[in-house]
Amino acid sequence: MLACCSAGASEPRVETLTTADGVEVAFQRYPATGTGLLVWWPSEHGIEQGHAEVAAQLSRSGTEVWIADPFATWFLPTLRASLSEIPRDTCGAFLHAAGARSGKRLFVLGQGRGATVLLECLRHAVRQGLQEIGGVLLVTPDLFLRTRQPGRRREFEPIASATNFPVFVIFAEKSIEHLYRDEIVAVLSEGGSRVYHTLVQGARNRFFYRPDASPLEVSAGQGLAGLLLRSMDLLSHDAAARGFAQLDARPAPKAGTPGRKLVRYTGPQHDRLRLPDLDGRIHDTRKYAGTALLVSFWASWCPPCVHELPSMVRLQTAMAGQPFRVLAVNLDETPATINAFLRARPVNFPVLLDAGLRYAQRWQVSAFPSSFLIDGTGSIRYAVAGALEWDDPVVVDTIRQLLAE
Protein backbone atom coordinates (compact mmCIF):
# COMPACT_ATOMS: atom_id res chain seq x y z
CA MET A 1 0.00 0.00 0.00
CA LEU A 2 1.04 3.60 -0.53
CA ALA A 3 1.17 5.91 2.46
CA CYS A 4 1.74 9.63 2.06
CA CYS A 5 3.70 11.36 4.78
CA SER A 6 3.51 14.89 3.39
CA ALA A 7 1.42 16.48 0.69
CA GLY A 8 1.43 19.25 -1.86
CA ALA A 9 0.11 18.94 -5.38
CA SER A 10 3.08 20.62 -7.06
CA GLU A 11 5.72 19.58 -4.52
CA PRO A 12 7.57 16.28 -4.12
CA ARG A 13 5.96 13.97 -1.61
CA VAL A 14 7.78 11.84 0.93
CA GLU A 15 5.94 8.53 0.85
CA THR A 16 6.33 4.89 1.76
CA LEU A 17 5.37 1.76 -0.12
CA THR A 18 4.72 -1.39 1.88
CA THR A 19 6.17 -4.39 0.08
CA ALA A 20 4.78 -7.93 0.11
CA ASP A 21 7.15 -8.83 2.95
CA GLY A 22 5.82 -5.97 5.10
CA VAL A 23 8.68 -3.48 4.81
CA GLU A 24 7.81 0.20 4.38
CA VAL A 25 10.26 1.51 1.79
CA ALA A 26 10.66 5.29 1.86
CA PHE A 27 10.88 7.30 -1.35
CA GLN A 28 10.44 10.81 -2.68
CA ARG A 29 7.64 11.01 -5.22
CA TYR A 30 7.49 13.61 -7.99
CA PRO A 31 4.03 13.03 -9.48
CA ALA A 32 3.22 13.57 -13.14
CA THR A 33 0.30 12.88 -15.45
CA GLY A 34 2.27 11.06 -18.15
CA THR A 35 2.45 7.32 -18.71
CA GLY A 36 6.06 6.78 -17.60
CA LEU A 37 7.49 6.13 -14.14
CA LEU A 38 11.23 6.41 -13.42
CA VAL A 39 12.37 4.73 -10.19
CA TRP A 40 15.73 6.21 -9.24
CA TRP A 41 18.14 4.30 -7.02
CA PRO A 42 20.71 6.73 -5.57
CA SER A 43 24.42 6.15 -5.09
CA GLU A 44 26.34 5.76 -1.86
CA HIS A 45 26.14 9.56 -1.50
CA GLY A 46 22.39 9.49 -0.89
CA ILE A 47 19.83 11.99 -2.14
CA GLU A 48 21.15 15.49 -2.84
CA GLN A 49 19.61 18.72 -4.11
CA GLY A 50 20.71 17.87 -7.63
CA HIS A 51 18.50 14.78 -7.58
CA ALA A 52 15.52 16.93 -6.63
CA GLU A 53 16.18 19.43 -9.40
CA VAL A 54 16.45 16.76 -12.10
CA ALA A 55 13.40 14.89 -10.77
CA ALA A 56 11.36 18.11 -10.74
CA GLN A 57 12.27 18.78 -14.38
CA LEU A 58 11.25 15.26 -15.35
CA SER A 59 7.98 15.63 -13.46
CA ARG A 60 7.16 18.89 -15.24
CA SER A 61 7.87 17.11 -18.53
CA GLY A 62 5.29 14.43 -17.72
CA THR A 63 7.45 11.61 -16.33
CA GLU A 64 6.74 10.63 -12.73
CA VAL A 65 9.83 10.02 -10.58
CA TRP A 66 10.26 7.97 -7.42
CA ILE A 67 13.64 8.42 -5.71
CA ALA A 68 14.12 5.49 -3.35
CA ASP A 69 15.70 6.26 0.03
CA PRO A 70 17.26 3.02 1.29
CA PHE A 71 19.25 4.87 3.93
CA ALA A 72 16.11 6.19 5.63
CA THR A 73 14.27 2.89 5.14
CA TRP A 74 16.87 0.75 6.86
CA PHE A 75 18.26 3.48 9.18
CA LEU A 76 21.69 3.34 7.57
CA PRO A 77 24.40 6.02 7.41
CA THR A 78 24.99 7.49 3.96
CA LEU A 79 28.13 5.51 3.25
CA ARG A 80 29.36 3.10 0.58
CA ALA A 81 29.56 0.31 3.15
CA SER A 82 25.84 0.70 3.90
CA LEU A 83 24.90 -0.48 0.41
CA SER A 84 25.85 -4.05 1.32
CA GLU A 85 23.28 -3.96 4.15
CA ILE A 86 20.30 -3.34 1.85
CA PRO A 87 18.25 -6.55 1.39
CA ARG A 88 18.04 -7.16 -2.34
CA ASP A 89 14.83 -9.20 -2.15
CA THR A 90 13.00 -6.36 -0.40
CA CYS A 91 14.17 -3.65 -2.77
CA GLY A 92 13.27 -6.02 -5.61
CA ALA A 93 9.77 -6.25 -4.15
CA PHE A 94 9.71 -2.43 -4.11
CA LEU A 95 10.49 -2.28 -7.83
CA HIS A 96 7.89 -4.95 -8.57
CA ALA A 97 5.23 -3.11 -6.56
CA ALA A 98 6.14 0.28 -8.04
CA GLY A 99 5.31 -0.87 -11.55
CA ALA A 100 2.13 -2.61 -10.47
CA ARG A 101 0.77 0.14 -8.22
CA SER A 102 1.54 3.07 -10.49
CA GLY A 103 0.04 1.49 -13.61
CA LYS A 104 2.75 3.25 -15.63
CA ARG A 105 5.55 2.04 -17.85
CA LEU A 106 8.48 1.41 -15.54
CA PHE A 107 12.02 2.61 -16.12
CA VAL A 108 14.76 2.30 -13.51
CA LEU A 109 17.85 4.44 -12.97
CA GLY A 110 20.96 3.57 -11.01
CA GLN A 111 23.86 5.87 -10.30
CA GLY A 112 27.39 5.30 -9.02
CA ARG A 113 27.67 2.26 -6.78
CA GLY A 114 23.87 2.32 -6.57
CA ALA A 115 23.84 0.99 -10.15
CA THR A 116 25.15 -2.38 -8.96
CA VAL A 117 22.57 -2.46 -6.18
CA LEU A 118 19.80 -1.58 -8.64
CA LEU A 119 20.70 -4.41 -11.02
CA GLU A 120 20.80 -6.90 -8.16
CA CYS A 121 17.41 -5.67 -6.93
CA LEU A 122 16.02 -5.84 -10.45
CA ARG A 123 17.06 -9.48 -10.68
CA HIS A 124 14.97 -10.19 -7.56
CA ALA A 125 12.05 -8.20 -8.96
CA VAL A 126 12.04 -10.38 -12.08
CA ARG A 127 12.14 -13.54 -9.96
CA GLN A 128 9.16 -12.15 -8.03
CA GLY A 129 7.12 -11.67 -11.17
CA LEU A 130 8.06 -8.35 -12.78
CA GLN A 131 7.37 -9.05 -16.45
CA GLU A 132 7.93 -5.81 -18.29
CA ILE A 133 10.20 -2.83 -17.98
CA GLY A 134 10.88 0.04 -20.33
CA GLY A 135 14.62 -0.11 -19.77
CA VAL A 136 17.54 0.57 -17.45
CA LEU A 137 19.39 3.88 -17.25
CA LEU A 138 22.83 3.98 -15.60
CA VAL A 139 24.59 7.26 -14.78
CA THR A 140 28.37 6.89 -14.27
CA PRO A 141 27.80 3.32 -13.02
CA ASP A 142 30.28 1.71 -10.64
CA LEU A 143 29.97 -1.97 -11.59
CA PHE A 144 33.44 -2.96 -10.44
CA LEU A 145 34.31 -5.46 -7.76
CA ARG A 146 35.52 -3.38 -4.86
CA THR A 147 38.63 -5.48 -4.26
CA ARG A 148 41.30 -4.37 -6.69
CA GLN A 149 45.05 -4.50 -6.99
CA PRO A 150 46.92 -1.56 -8.49
CA GLY A 151 48.03 -2.31 -12.03
CA ARG A 152 45.65 -5.23 -12.53
CA ARG A 153 42.67 -5.03 -14.85
CA ARG A 154 39.48 -4.32 -12.96
CA GLU A 155 36.90 -7.07 -12.57
CA PHE A 156 33.15 -6.62 -12.65
CA GLU A 157 30.34 -7.68 -10.36
CA PRO A 158 28.64 -10.83 -11.74
CA ILE A 159 25.30 -9.02 -12.04
CA ALA A 160 26.78 -6.73 -14.71
CA SER A 161 26.98 -9.59 -17.20
CA ALA A 162 23.71 -11.22 -16.05
CA THR A 163 21.38 -8.45 -17.18
CA ASN A 164 19.46 -8.55 -20.46
CA PHE A 165 17.22 -5.52 -20.35
CA PRO A 166 18.00 -2.71 -22.80
CA VAL A 167 20.42 -0.32 -21.10
CA PHE A 168 21.41 3.31 -21.64
CA VAL A 169 24.67 4.35 -19.96
CA ILE A 170 25.70 7.95 -19.33
CA PHE A 171 29.46 8.31 -18.83
CA ALA A 172 31.25 11.35 -17.44
CA GLU A 173 34.42 12.15 -19.36
CA LYS A 174 36.55 12.80 -16.26
CA SER A 175 35.87 9.54 -14.45
CA ILE A 176 37.43 6.12 -14.06
CA GLU A 177 34.29 4.65 -15.64
CA HIS A 178 35.01 6.52 -18.87
CA LEU A 179 38.51 5.04 -18.95
CA TYR A 180 36.89 1.58 -18.88
CA ARG A 181 33.90 2.52 -21.05
CA ASP A 182 34.44 -0.16 -23.70
CA GLU A 183 34.79 -2.86 -21.07
CA ILE A 184 31.64 -1.72 -19.22
CA VAL A 185 29.62 -1.78 -22.44
CA ALA A 186 31.02 -5.20 -23.32
CA VAL A 187 30.26 -6.78 -19.95
CA LEU A 188 26.70 -5.40 -19.93
CA SER A 189 26.21 -6.85 -23.40
CA GLU A 190 27.27 -10.34 -22.32
CA GLY A 191 23.88 -11.13 -20.81
CA GLY A 192 22.05 -10.11 -23.98
CA SER A 193 21.45 -6.45 -23.19
CA ARG A 194 21.38 -3.97 -26.03
CA VAL A 195 23.57 -1.21 -24.65
CA TYR A 196 23.43 2.42 -25.74
CA HIS A 197 25.78 5.00 -24.28
CA THR A 198 26.74 8.64 -24.41
CA LEU A 199 29.45 10.87 -22.94
CA VAL A 200 29.05 14.06 -20.91
CA GLN A 201 32.04 16.10 -22.03
CA GLY A 202 34.26 17.67 -19.38
CA ALA A 203 32.24 16.33 -16.45
CA ARG A 204 33.25 14.34 -13.38
CA ASN A 205 31.27 11.77 -11.43
CA ARG A 206 28.36 13.33 -9.52
CA PHE A 207 28.47 16.25 -11.94
CA PHE A 208 24.83 17.20 -11.33
CA TYR A 209 25.15 17.58 -7.56
CA ARG A 210 28.82 18.26 -6.83
CA PRO A 211 29.33 21.16 -4.38
CA ASP A 212 32.41 22.15 -6.41
CA ALA A 213 30.74 21.80 -9.81
CA SER A 214 32.40 23.72 -12.62
CA PRO A 215 30.27 25.93 -14.90
CA LEU A 216 30.42 23.17 -17.50
CA GLU A 217 29.17 20.62 -14.93
CA VAL A 218 26.38 22.94 -13.82
CA SER A 219 25.28 23.20 -17.44
CA ALA A 220 25.48 19.41 -17.85
CA GLY A 221 23.39 18.96 -14.72
CA GLN A 222 20.76 21.31 -16.05
CA GLY A 223 20.61 19.25 -19.23
CA LEU A 224 20.48 15.85 -17.53
CA ALA A 225 16.68 15.68 -17.38
CA GLY A 226 16.45 16.20 -21.13
CA LEU A 227 19.09 13.55 -21.71
CA LEU A 228 17.20 11.08 -19.53
CA LEU A 229 13.96 11.78 -21.39
CA ARG A 230 15.63 11.14 -24.73
CA SER A 231 17.20 7.97 -23.33
CA MET A 232 13.84 6.64 -22.12
CA ASP A 233 12.27 7.41 -25.47
CA LEU A 234 15.02 5.45 -27.23
CA LEU A 235 14.70 2.48 -24.87
CA SER A 236 10.91 2.44 -25.14
CA HIS A 237 11.24 1.74 -28.88
CA ASP A 238 13.65 -1.14 -28.36
CA ALA A 239 11.92 -4.40 -29.24
CA ALA A 240 13.81 -6.18 -26.48
CA ALA A 241 12.01 -4.07 -23.90
CA ARG A 242 8.59 -5.52 -24.67
CA GLY A 243 8.87 -9.03 -23.30
CA PHE A 244 9.85 -10.89 -20.18
CA ALA A 245 13.55 -10.52 -19.46
CA GLN A 246 15.23 -13.30 -17.54
CA LEU A 247 18.26 -12.65 -15.41
CA ASP A 248 20.94 -15.05 -14.33
CA ALA A 249 20.40 -15.88 -10.66
CA ARG A 250 24.08 -16.11 -9.79
CA PRO A 251 24.75 -14.57 -6.39
CA ALA A 252 27.01 -11.57 -6.32
CA PRO A 253 29.92 -12.06 -3.92
CA LYS A 254 30.67 -9.59 -1.20
CA ALA A 255 33.82 -7.70 -1.92
CA GLY A 256 36.08 -5.75 0.36
CA THR A 257 37.31 -2.19 0.09
CA PRO A 258 41.07 -1.84 -0.34
CA GLY A 259 43.05 -0.07 2.34
CA ARG A 260 44.57 3.29 1.39
CA LYS A 261 48.25 2.50 1.81
CA LEU A 262 51.32 1.74 -0.22
CA VAL A 263 51.24 -2.01 -0.90
CA ARG A 264 53.62 -4.46 -2.49
CA TYR A 265 52.95 -4.69 -6.19
CA THR A 266 51.96 -8.09 -7.59
CA GLY A 267 50.65 -7.07 -11.00
CA PRO A 268 52.34 -7.30 -14.39
CA GLN A 269 55.49 -5.29 -15.07
CA HIS A 270 54.23 -2.78 -17.62
CA ASP A 271 55.97 -1.42 -20.68
CA ARG A 272 58.31 1.49 -20.22
CA LEU A 273 56.77 4.91 -19.97
CA ARG A 274 57.90 7.36 -22.64
CA LEU A 275 56.12 10.73 -22.63
CA PRO A 276 56.83 14.44 -23.20
CA ASP A 277 56.75 16.98 -20.41
CA LEU A 278 55.26 20.47 -20.61
CA ASP A 279 58.41 21.77 -22.31
CA GLY A 280 58.39 19.02 -24.92
CA ARG A 281 61.30 17.04 -23.43
CA ILE A 282 60.84 13.27 -23.63
CA HIS A 283 61.08 11.27 -20.40
CA ASP A 284 61.79 7.56 -20.78
CA THR A 285 61.72 5.39 -17.66
CA ARG A 286 64.47 3.19 -19.16
CA LYS A 287 66.82 6.17 -19.03
CA TYR A 288 66.28 6.51 -15.28
CA ALA A 289 68.31 3.35 -14.56
CA GLY A 290 69.67 3.47 -11.01
CA THR A 291 66.98 5.97 -9.95
CA ALA A 292 63.88 5.11 -7.95
CA LEU A 293 60.76 6.62 -9.51
CA LEU A 294 57.35 7.55 -8.20
CA VAL A 295 55.05 7.53 -11.25
CA SER A 296 51.68 9.06 -10.41
CA PHE A 297 48.67 9.36 -12.75
CA TRP A 298 46.70 12.51 -11.88
CA ALA A 299 44.51 15.37 -13.15
CA SER A 300 43.75 18.89 -11.99
CA TRP A 301 40.00 18.10 -11.92
CA CYS A 302 40.54 15.23 -9.45
CA PRO A 303 40.27 16.50 -5.82
CA PRO A 304 42.26 13.59 -4.26
CA CYS A 305 45.00 14.17 -6.85
CA VAL A 306 45.18 17.84 -5.98
CA HIS A 307 45.18 17.02 -2.28
CA GLU A 308 48.24 14.77 -2.47
CA LEU A 309 50.39 16.97 -4.74
CA PRO A 310 51.84 19.13 -1.92
CA SER A 311 53.03 16.01 -0.12
CA MET A 312 54.76 14.88 -3.33
CA VAL A 313 56.50 18.25 -3.49
CA ARG A 314 57.65 17.81 0.12
CA LEU A 315 58.81 14.26 -0.63
CA GLN A 316 60.87 15.37 -3.63
CA THR A 317 62.43 18.10 -1.48
CA ALA A 318 63.21 15.63 1.32
CA MET A 319 64.88 13.28 -1.17
CA ALA A 320 67.03 15.98 -2.79
CA GLY A 321 70.50 14.74 -3.70
CA GLN A 322 69.41 11.11 -3.76
CA PRO A 323 68.59 8.95 -6.82
CA PHE A 324 64.84 9.50 -6.61
CA ARG A 325 62.42 11.30 -8.91
CA VAL A 326 58.68 11.98 -9.02
CA LEU A 327 57.06 11.81 -12.47
CA ALA A 328 53.50 13.13 -12.51
CA VAL A 329 51.60 11.78 -15.52
CA ASN A 330 48.68 14.04 -16.36
CA LEU A 331 45.48 12.45 -17.65
CA ASP A 332 44.78 14.00 -21.06
CA GLU A 333 44.51 17.67 -20.09
CA THR A 334 45.81 20.39 -22.36
CA PRO A 335 49.17 22.05 -21.60
CA ALA A 336 47.34 25.38 -21.17
CA THR A 337 45.06 23.90 -18.52
CA ILE A 338 47.95 22.26 -16.67
CA ASN A 339 50.12 25.37 -16.74
CA ALA A 340 47.26 27.51 -15.40
CA PHE A 341 46.81 25.02 -12.57
CA LEU A 342 50.55 24.88 -11.79
CA ARG A 343 50.85 28.65 -11.61
CA ALA A 344 48.76 28.50 -8.44
CA ARG A 345 50.21 25.18 -7.24
CA PRO A 346 53.81 24.88 -8.44
CA VAL A 347 55.62 21.54 -8.26
CA ASN A 348 59.31 20.57 -8.28
CA PHE A 349 59.09 17.57 -10.60
CA PRO A 350 58.22 16.95 -14.26
CA VAL A 351 54.60 16.80 -15.39
CA LEU A 352 54.20 14.44 -18.32
CA LEU A 353 51.40 14.49 -20.91
CA ASP A 354 49.41 11.29 -21.44
CA ALA A 355 47.35 12.46 -24.41
CA GLY A 356 44.51 10.08 -25.14
CA LEU A 357 45.10 8.22 -21.85
CA ARG A 358 47.31 5.77 -23.72
CA TYR A 359 49.56 4.93 -20.77
CA ALA A 360 46.77 5.08 -18.19
CA GLN A 361 45.14 2.24 -20.11
CA ARG A 362 48.38 0.31 -20.64
CA TRP A 363 49.22 0.53 -16.95
CA GLN A 364 45.64 -0.46 -16.10
CA VAL A 365 45.04 2.52 -13.82
CA SER A 366 42.15 1.59 -11.52
CA ALA A 367 41.52 4.87 -9.70
CA PHE A 368 42.45 8.54 -9.83
CA PRO A 369 45.11 9.09 -8.63
CA SER A 370 47.09 5.85 -9.05
CA SER A 371 50.78 5.69 -8.23
CA PHE A 372 53.59 3.20 -8.82
CA LEU A 373 56.92 3.08 -6.97
CA ILE A 374 59.68 1.75 -9.25
CA ASP A 375 63.12 0.63 -8.08
CA GLY A 376 66.46 1.41 -9.72
CA THR A 377 66.25 -1.65 -11.98
CA GLY A 378 62.94 -0.49 -13.48
CA SER A 379 60.71 -2.97 -11.60
CA ILE A 380 57.42 -1.80 -10.07
CA ARG A 381 57.71 -2.68 -6.38
CA TYR A 382 54.84 -0.83 -4.67
CA ALA A 383 51.62 0.81 -5.76
CA VAL A 384 48.48 2.48 -4.45
CA ALA A 385 45.05 3.23 -5.93
CA GLY A 386 44.04 6.54 -4.35
CA ALA A 387 45.71 9.47 -2.61
CA LEU A 388 48.45 9.28 0.03
CA GLU A 389 50.45 11.64 2.20
CA TRP A 390 53.72 10.95 0.42
CA ASP A 391 55.96 12.47 3.07
CA ASP A 392 54.54 10.18 5.75
CA PRO A 393 57.50 8.59 7.59
CA VAL A 394 56.35 5.06 6.70
CA VAL A 395 56.28 5.93 2.98
CA VAL A 396 59.63 7.73 3.11
CA ASP A 397 61.18 4.77 4.92
CA THR A 398 59.90 2.41 2.20
CA ILE A 399 61.54 4.55 -0.47
CA ARG A 400 64.81 4.73 1.44
CA GLN A 401 64.84 0.93 1.73
CA LEU A 402 64.54 0.69 -2.07
CA LEU A 403 67.45 3.08 -2.48
CA ALA A 404 69.57 1.02 -0.08
CA GLU A 405 69.15 -2.21 -2.04
Structure overview:
The chain has helices at 49-60, 70-73, 88-102, 114-127, 176-179, 181-189, 215-222, 224-236, 303-318, 335-344, 358-362, 393-404; strands spanning 2-4, 13-18, 24-30, 36-41, 63-68, 105-111, 135-139, 167-174, 195-204, 263-264, 274-276, 282-284, 292-298, 324-330, 351-353, 370-374, 380-385. The chain has 405 residues and is an alpha/beta fold. The protein has two domains: 2-242, Alpha/Beta hydrolase fold, catalytic domain (Rossmann fold); 263-404, Glutaredoxin (3-Layer(aba) Sandwich). The strands form three sheets. The chain has a nine-stranded mixed β-sheet, with helices on both faces. α3 packs across α4 (114-127). It starts with a strand and ends with a helix.
- Total number of β-strand segments? 17
Number of helical segments with 4 or more residues: 12
Rg over CA atoms, rounded to whole Å, is 23 Å
Would you list the SSEs in sequence order as H and E?
EEEEHEHHEHEEHHEHHEEEEHEHEHEEH
Q: Which structural class should the secondary elements be placed in? A: alpha/beta
Share of residues in helices: 25-40%
Oligomer designation: single chain
Strand order of the largest sheet: 1-2-3-5-4-6-7-8-9
Q: What is the total domain count? A: 2
- What is the first-to-last residue Cα distance? 69 Å
Which CATH class of the largest domain? Answer: Alpha Beta
Strand content: 15-25%
CATH architecture of the largest domain: 3-Layer(aba) Sandwich
Give the overall form.
Answer: elongated
The main sheet comes to:
9 strands, mixed
Q: According to CATH, what is the topology of the largest domain?
A: Rossmann fold
Low-confidence stretches: 1-10, 241-259
CATH superfamily of the largest domain: Alpha/Beta hydrolase fold, catalytic domain
